[in-house]
Amino acid sequence: MNRRPHVVAIVPAAGRSGRMGTMKQLLDVGGVPMVTHVVEALRAGGADEVIVVANPKLDEALVDPPRDVRVVINDDPETEMIDSVRLALNASAGADGWLICPCDAAGITLQDVRRCVDAFAATPDRIIVATHNGKRGHPMIFPASLAEVVRSPECDGGLNQLARNRPQLIRTIECDSPGTVANVNTPQDYERLRDVT
Q: Where exactly are the structural domains of the chain?
């Protein structure tokens, strides 16, 4: 590939936030809603496009949605994250790779994203997985050649199956930020995040 790969970021944000007890996508992180904070890190870190997959309630509540973002609606409350990823895949075309980062990975930084995007640009046939102290997290980038696998029953149990079944394609990228391996699922998680942001 002679040009830099075109990377489309997918932000699954259609969850019901059951453990948080409130819509965590809208919790304040650095003065903006959590989903906006993640989108801004992805754009500043080098993603060419960003698609946020939202439930109808979130879409209605986002009175000031992140700029330069496409919103895809997942209106089935029983779906899993993989279903949101597939909706975004179907809504995008022309990507060389898809970067996955859930909206509750609110501790990631643009530097984390940049390292992963640069690694994918150097090895666009590999699955890029961010790590911190050897633990795998987000973002994850997979090449367009694997899009049909993501759509297939092989990944019905989640996107982790893609990497698990192809260890030879994994390239891990060590990141400085513990936010790459920390998700905000509970009020306690949110308090920890606020302590470091």
A: 7-196
Each residue's pLDDT expressed in tens, for the chain with a length of 197 residues: 578 999 999 999 998 777 777 888 888 888 888 999 999 999 999 999 999 999 998 888 876 667 778 999 999 878 899 999 999 999 988 899 999 999 999 889 999 999 999 999 999 999 999 999 999 999 999 999 999 999 999 999 999 999 999 999 999 999 998 889 988 888 788 787 776 55
Q: Which CATH superfamily is domain 7-196 in?
A: Spore Coat Polysaccharide Biosynthesis Protein SpsA; Chain A (3.90.550.10)
Percent of residues in the chain assigned helix, strand, coil, to nearest 5: 40, 25, 40
Global pTM reads 0.92
